[in-house]
Design a protein that fits this description.
mainly alpha, two-stranded antiparallel sheet, globular
């Protein structure tokens, strides 16, 4: 059995073991399990049943992650994307005034469109058209974004009206929970202790119990998941041929496209199975997994699925194959019935893992060259726009648009491929459509 699993997922070829893969999956699960709470909370603002959303979120995550495991053999988990769920709830439904059924229909159409684009190699062509310098900048920007999210999650960095962001309140237990976890994790990594990131999460959780920020579950730990039927297959086709539907689908397409591309390239480079230009053999299968997952997620009743950058934490813990993703899927299946146990882990306990992963990912900056301004500026914008806008997609978009503009103005248009001009034109169209939507 073990040998069959090893051969199927090519563990020896990727220089990993079953133990490392399972450990990587556990760490990835712990760092992204918050989606089981956050996604129902956000989408529930539209009037959707939160219990049904909990089940739909878990099921969509399980299916999407297993698709990535078995189709692409990658250690990447998929779940309803943060940002995409906010767009679903607060823009399409609450701002534009449409029903949540209309929004689900937009997600479903987006998924079907992605399937067609993947089958005809359009998405893979876009990935391969991204300049090498921007591809190398992507993991650096992601590293800064993950670090920023981790610091926010810990309460170490907070919103400040005078300076935009500032240092948090060190009288808060959450700050000390995260700080202790960060130091412990760093020390374990320095001593090359296997499973250091997971051990750091466990230490932080124990601290959370001590500080009263985490509580052992009371009563039964096992419960049947809520009924998913209130949101299952709830589509609305009456407004499908409208400009608003076109704008909604187009925006979902572009945000998800570049969010997924950025995550895939960043994690692949970190895991070591992508070449210097960010290309790897499983790319097309990974994109197909993403498209199928979004389509299936819409049928279940949740917003667009995306590849999760928290997967980088599992990669940092040794995950290299789809077996890591399989273990993530299994743990989400278990979480359906043991939600009280898994949800007791405070956000501050997983924050150190995100900060450490950010440290690992910014190491790619050493491979960048800043001699040519026509490449240095797009690279720089790619990096800084990710943490400053809290969006991987915006970093890639700003980098690509500035790359085309600078190369063209400086007479270096031969360094721009034909697909890049098309992509830049579509990105400008997206800016116009965004103006129509938010104007």
């Amino acid at each position: 059995m073990v040998n069959s699993v090893s051969r199927f997922f090519k563990l020896e070829e990727r220089r990993t073991t079953v133990r490392r893969e399972l450990l990587g999956g556990l760490v990835t699960f712990l760092t992204m399990s918050y989606i089981l709470v956050v996604n129902p909370s956000i989408l529930g603002e539209t009037g959707m049943d939160k219990g049904a959303l909990f089940t739909a979120t878990a099921l969509a995550t399980i299916v999407g992650t297993l698709l990535m495991a078995f189709l692409a053999n990658l250690p990447i988990a998929q779940a309803p994307g943060m940002g995409l769920n906010v767009f679903f709830a607060y823009t399409i439904v609450l701002a534009m005034g449409y029903t949540w059924q209309f929004a689900l229909t937009a997600v479903f159409i987006e998924g079907l469109t992605f399937i067609l684009l993947t089958v005809f190699n359009v998405r893979e062509l876009i990935v391969k058209s991204i300049p090498p310098a921007i591809k190398l900048a992507i993991p650096v920007g992601i590293g800064l974004l993950i670090t920023f999210l981790g610091l926010q999650q810990a309460g170490i960095v907070v919103k400040n009206d005078a300076t935009i962001a500032g240092v948090g309140d060190f009288s808060s237990p959450n700050v000390w929970i995260a700080a202790i976890g960060l130091i412990v994790t760093g020390a374990l990594l320095a001593r090359k202790v296997p499973g250091a990131i997971l051990m750091g999460i466990l230490v932080s959780t124990v601290c959370g119990i001590f500080f009263g920020q985490a509580h052992l579950p009371e009563g039964s730990l096992i419960a049947l998941p809520p009924d998913v039927r209130p949101v299952l297959l709830q589509f609305e086709w009456s407004n499908v041929l409208t400009l608003d539907m076109l704008i909604a689908v187009f925006t979902l397409l572009f945000v998800n496209l570049f969010d997924t591309i950025g995550t895939l390239i960043g994690v692949a480079l970190k895991a070591g199975f992508a070449d210097r230009e960010g290309n790897f053999p499983q790319l097309r299968r990974a994109l197909l997994s993403d498209a199928l997952a979004t389509t299936f997620g819409a049928m279940l009743g949740t917003s667009t699925l995306a590849s999760y950058i928290e997967s980088a934490s599992g990669v940092a813990s040794g995950g290299r194959t789809g077996l890591t993703a399989v273990s993530v899927g299994i743990m989400f299946a278990v979480a359906l019935f043991f939600a009280p146990l898994f949800l007791m882990i405070p956000a501050a306990a997983t924050a150190p893992a995100l900060i450490i992963v950010g440290l690992f990912m910014i190491a790619a900056v050493t491979q960048l060259s800043f001699d040519d301004v026509t490449e240095a500026l797009p690279t720089f914008l790619t990096i800084v726009m990710m943490p400053f806008t809290a969006s991987i997609a915006q970093g890639v978009i700003f980098g690509m648009l500035s790359f085309v503009a600078l190369k063209t103005l400086c007479g270096k248009h031969r360094q721009i491929s034909a697909p890049m001009y098309v992509i830049a034109a579509l990105l400008l169209l997206k800016v116009v459509l965004d103006g129509l939507m938010y104007g």
